Amino acid sequence: MAIAKAERLMNLALCLMNTRRPLSKKELRDSVEAYREASAAGSEEAFNRMFERDKDDLRELGLVIDVDESSLDGEVGYVARRDRNRLPEIALDAEEAAALSLAARVWQQARLAGAASGALQKLRAAGVPFEAAADREHTALEPRIPAREAAFEPLLLAARDRRPVVFEYRKAGAVRAEQRSVEPWALECWHGHWYVAGWDRDRKDARVFRLSRITGRVRTRSGGFTADVPDHVDVRENVARFAGEGATATARIRLRRGAAFPLRAKALASDPVDADWDELEIPYGYGLGAWLAEFGADVVVLGPDDLRADVVARLRAVAGQDTDQNATQGAQR
Amino acid sequence: MSNAIDQTRRMLSLVTYLRERPGARVGEVARAFGITEQELIGDLNVLPMCGTSFRGGDLLDIDTDGERIWWHNVDDVAQPLRLAADEATALLVAARAVAGLPGLRERDRQALTRAVAKIESSAGESAQGSARVGVTFEAEGHVFADVDRALSERRRLWLRYYSYGRGGMTEREVDPIRMVTEGHTYLEAWCRVSEGRRMFRLDRVADLRVLDAPADPPPLELRDLSEGLVRPAADDPEVVLEVGPGGRWVTEYYAHDEAVELPDGGLRITLRTPDPSGLRRLALRLGRDGRIVAPADLAEQARATAAEALAAYGPDAAEQAPAES
């Protein structure tokens, strides 16, 4: 029976961590039973591929493996030096440890959930007092960070390793997807949706993409980044502007009393008109027309005129009175 | 594959952990590592096959009687390992996001902020990648503290709540079960009016009071939320929508059974909802970017609502296209 991968990785890690001198590939092959089996059963090539993958996997786990090209006669040697791999002293008290272990549960995405619990396990093994907590009540909340978008993990890795990517992207309202060639800088989760900011190679400009609009696979391109990565990437500001959060103008509406609470909650000013209606001043940004239309007869737009026209056009479309089918597409998120 | 990675990561820490704790109890170790006892036993079956065999067969002599764990040739084979880049990122991004939650108890926030600073300085280079990932939770703090209190004191709540589907306010008493944030913050509670489990979005709570009565929800199993917080039931009525390219976003906001591509770049979306009247609002929002195909009476409701709304804009609006657009 083939030896399980975890056992093989563990053996390789222990060998690399417990040697005082670099070990050659041949020495490692002879030390790790799974490698001996692989070499005996298959080709040297199969062992080589397995060994390279295993080293990469251990590096993913944080192990620093030094490659020494000089010490062994003409052969490359490998070693995970203790001083380079030790966790520096970290003095978390029980309260900090408890807060951290609650926060670490937010990830709903397999890779980051695994990484977060792996980090806690390392801290625990290093003596951080996680057990001693629970002597007081904490905020009764379960925050969750979802990442259901298939593009999330490849983009996370590409941003980490500074690898350019290509993907098919369907812009909001676009009939078909287009290929985009991007150097991904940073990912941001906003309102439960993920966005990536980066350098768009074809447009030669910084762009933000919503992950749910990426269709098909994200493919990594060879080579590195060509554009400078800015020190600070503000994905959030960019996205918020398109979501209408950065409204600079205001609109006046009439609102039926007791209706449309979310709209009322955003009001800058509110005055009663009569027994049934109030007049409100609300922030006017991208997407407001679509939102106001939702409230149907509970809302009447007083101004500005372009917003009033937008809402009327939307209502006419739904009422079946849309005489001009080719009219400009209304603003959509 | 990722299982083997996670298991290796865990076993490396496990070895360091067991070294300090001869005769550690299986249950306690499993709890400390956040795994089941079976998973731990699985690890303990692998560890005796591992060692530094280049030194001549030094395998870890670790065994268990199912209750306690013994390591007979304790050796300094493992030390507390530095955090990997992904590990530091996962921990720091989570901690910063939670610390930024509006309504979080101040003591929790301060503890997290201190922890972040310590991890940052300990992780060194590994921590740098965490600047590449950011998470913002919604600012829905106005009723958060009261819900938090009701949950920890196990008290009943009175809510004046905006019902999205009906478009109006409702008043009800609920027994809180838990509070969950995913994009928005929700209170899951037992609604004493409808006698069912409901999700209440905190930004739709207009008013709330923590009552003296103790919360008394029936014994319920916590739902698995991995497929999303709001899931339709199998017997909820089915609705079919057709949207143009400008209405494709519907699939990102509504749990749906099916979305079939249409030749014009649009989608035919089939979904189920306990409250179809909420979709009348969706139809109004979509405008010419989409319409309800079935059921017919729902489509007619949307049409009638739009016609009624148009009437308020005077005869001009209802009969001819607006002068400007």
Describe the structure.
The complex is a heterodimer of chains A (333) and B (325). Chain A is an alpha+beta fold. Chain A has 4 domains: 5-85, Arc Repressor Mutant, subunit A (Orthogonal Bundle); 89-145; 152-242, SH3 type barrels (Roll), CATH 2.30.30; 249-319, no CATH class. In chain A, 36% of the residues lie in helices and 22% in strands. Chain A is built from 12 helices and 13 strands. In chain A, the strands form 3 sheets. Chain A has a 5-stranded antiparallel beta sheet with strand order 8-7-6-5-9. A 4-stranded antiparallel beta sheet of chain A has the order 11-12-10-13, covered by helices on one side. Chain A is elongated, with a radius of gyration of 29 Å. The model of chain A is unreliable at 325-333 (pLDDT under 50). Chain B has 325 residues and is of the alpha+beta class. Chain B has 4 domains: 2-71, Orthogonal Bundle (Arc Repressor Mutant, subunit A); 85-132; 144-214, SH3 type barrels (Roll); 238-317, no CATH class. Chain B has 10 helices and 13 strands. Chain B has helices at residues 2-19, 26-32, 37-46, 85-99, 106-123, 144-153, 250-253, 277-286, 296-311, 314-319, and strands spanning 24-25, 62-64, 68-71, 133-136, 155-163, 168-182, 184-191, 196-201, 205-214, 238-243, 258-261, 267-272, 290-294. Chain B has a 5-stranded antiparallel beta sheet with strand order 8-7-6-5-9, with helices on one face. A 4-stranded antiparallel beta sheet of chain B has the order 11-12-10-13. In chain B, strands 1-3-2 form a 3-stranded antiparallel beta sheet. In chain B, strand 2 and strand 3 form a beta hairpin. In chain B, helix 8 (277-286) crosses helix 9. Chain B is elongated, with a radius of gyration of 28 Å. Mean pLDDT of chain B is 87; it is low at 320-325. The chains are: A alpha+beta (333), B alpha+beta (325). Chains A and B meet through helix 1, helix 2, helix 4, helix 5 and helix 6 of A and helix 1, helix 4, helix 5, strand 4 and helix 6 of B. Strand 4 of chain A pairs parallel with strand 6 (168-182) of chain B, so a sheet runs across the interface.
